[in-house]
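hiii, so i know i said id send this last week but things got crazy w the move. better late than never?? heres the sequnce for the chain we talked about at the cafe, plus the structure i predicted for it. fair warning i was half asleep when i ran it
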Amino acid sequence: MNDVLELLLNLDPPELPCKQVRLKRLSELCGRDVVFELKALPFSRVAEIKKAHAGDEEMGLHILLGGVVSPNLKDKRLAEKYHAHTPAELLKKLLLPGEIEDLSREIELLSGYRTLTLEDVKKK
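okay and structure toks below
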């Protein structure tokens, strides 16, 4: 077990994983690729979202708001274009419910949820 300690001590603190995804429907409407950059959420942000939105039907929306790196959902031009007062309202107007769910799921996967993160150690 000391080997594991040494491995962890020699490891640089890992950065949160990121991923780019193409939104099919918006890409077709724009005639060019519409790509969102997503990033895993840190533990503290997940805890905040769970505390504020446990059992809330909009929890996925808040996961999405926390994990979208690009485009900037707080850009005033987007808010004006879609007559949205908040980034959450913007997403509801811009995306279909299934797209919000799919993007939220991708952020959850990046954050280590909805996937197996452990494996059994086989005895030799």
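btw The first helix runs from residue 2 to 10. thought thatd interest u
miss u guys!!
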